[in-house]
Model the fold of this input.
Amino acid sequence: MAETGISKYFYGDEAEQFIYFRIPRQLITDPRFKHLSTDAKLLYGMLLDRMSLSVKNGWYDEDGRVYIYYTVEEICADMNCGRDKAMKMLADLDTRKGVGLINRVKQGQGKPTKLYVRRFTTGAVPPQ
Done:
């Protein structure tokens, strides 16, 4: 069989060339999140990743909370899924219908929904 020119292994610091999503261990091990789908857990990790972009853009509300913009269409494209599945993942993470890991605030007038990514570990507010 002919070689394809792609190495089967990583060498040296090659593994550091990738960007990774971090998914908190508690989402996997805590009984509160056992019923949450793996896709919803991955989406939460992606939402956490987006927080750094929001900080760079200065997207804070009047209370100093960071929010993100991540449209359903972007979620569909990034997760390679349909609209119904993206909406279900958001609902599963939401404070109203799901486990309370995000809060969605509709702005109306064609503006995208603000997403507040909530803490999964504690309800304490950090000092400002």
In short: The CA atoms of residues 72 and 86 lie 6 Å apart. The chain has four helices and three strands. The longest helix spans residues 38-57.
